[in-house]
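Instructor's aside before we start: the two examples that follow are unrelated to each other. I chose them only because their records fit on one page, so don't look for a connection. First example below.
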Amino acid sequence: MTDTTETGDDWFSDETATFGDRLAGAREALGLTQADLSKRMGVKLKTVVAWENDWSEPRANKLQMVAGLLNVSIRWLLTGEGDGPEDPGATDVQGDLNHVILDLRQMRQEHARLGEQMGRLEKRLRQTLKKEEDR
């Protein structure tokens, strides 16, 4: 975490970025997806999407929670000044690896879901074939 007021880093300054830009940048710096953040925050995915697109802003209690989860200051989220994530141009191997792990987990879950769906379809097909044979 970097104090952007001391380093002169203005990647997420008020002139350069919006609240939504800073929220998305901090989330991505940790390797989280919007779905991951929504789950951790206990809000709907469309709520996080709205925040990141600057269609709405979180209430004070959610703002405090999201700042804590993303390890940035509330002040930084609102203005771009204070403690924020590292420079987005910097290589974040740990964040990249966390992102890969999350992607693999999602793929594994999708694979399991598709396997279950294929099993149900196979069962229906067998039942249909048996009914046809019995006719």
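Example two begins here.
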Amino acid sequence: MRVAVYCGSASGADPVFMNATQALGQYFAEQGIEVVYGGGHVGLMGKIADSVLAAGGRVSGVMPESLVKREIAHSHLTSLTVVNNMHERKAQMADMADAFVALPGGAGTLEEIFEAWTWAQLGHHTKPCAFYNVQGFYDPLFAMIDNMVQQGFLKDEYRQMLIRVDEPDALVKAFRDYQAPDEKWR
């Protein structure tokens, strides 16, 4: 299995985010799960790559050339694919992945996981999308998603397709057990 990991290029204000990322990366490597991610060496991005690699796992990065030129690319990955822009990065990562997970992060993290989730709703893929909810980080977002359902902008079946976990084994089990709903606009 290959999992696309979306996460912050920052470390976060609480060390719990770095610690949880390190533990998840080690768990992925121990389970033989490969990681594909944005290719950076900074923040949670760097921590997920370092922890997978340190445990003997494989990590593939996908990074736009403009960020490689800024020396943000991780230099010890299993592979690094350099693309022209962020649109190509997201498409390449989606093609490479069997599942998607968002760890804590900012606007870019949300944009990437929401695009993967939207593509799943539209039937472009049947891969699971998850939020790794470290210390309740995504609880306010889940409240907003619940509000979208309550206000009639999102069907409950599409809310339910999002995996919400905070433990490595629960995440991998949810990926393996995932059953995609019917595509939207069928």
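The mean pLDDT is 96.
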